[in-house]
Design goal:
By secondary structure, the protein is of the alpha/beta class. The protein has six helices and 14 strands.
Length: 260
Amino acid sequence: MPTNSLNICLLQTDLVWEDKESNLATFDQMISNQKSTADIILLPEMFTTGFSMNPDTLAEEMDGPSIEWMHEKARQTGSLIAGSLIIKEGTNYFNRFIAMSSEGIIASYDKRHLFRMGQEESYYKQGNERVIFEWKGWRIFPQICYDLRFPVWIRNQNEYDLILFVANWPEPRREVWRTLLVARALENQCYVAGVNRIGHDNKSINHAGDSLIIDPKGEIIGDMGQLAGGINTSLSLDELVSFRKKFPVNLDRDTFEINF
């Protein structure tokens, strides 16, 4: 049976450049500090390393220590632990979103839109599958950073209830981040949760955070601003279903196909 209320926790913090142990220790402490139980704990893009173009030295396989850390946190908390990591498969590297439960990985998604302005496409292989998974009766659509700019890829055809965005989104484009998160919620009549990092990376690029939770009407119901810490917000499936019935824009949507 679906869970009407879904409690989601966003963890926003600085990331130590390419230092997995330090970053995992930070998230260990942040998770321990959470006073309420969350159904989902969402971590930023490449949460163990920062947005690095050094996958040859940082990548792990799907049985690596960061995956095991996620599994251990899921077992300890009972939460779904989600975020993206640098993953190696064969000779390819992926910026991969992992959704981990106490039972193991329930979904993974490889970033479709690689950030060419940061040369991501030169180091990572592009994903070719839209992934939608269920957690406690909610249909969830994972996305990674630059994916946010591509509404056709994200367009909801009555497939999902919640989008999870994980990012390392630079401060100079913070208003773009905030605006597009609201737009994706409005046009897809869904909840949106977007978690970003704060602090400077090794290229002296600052990240303002602005981790947000937005309801299907486009109202911001959770806002981290630029502070480190966690935010917990409860989402209502009943309210989502009621709004979709009252204002059924989905019935007038255009059909289309995505070519890979």
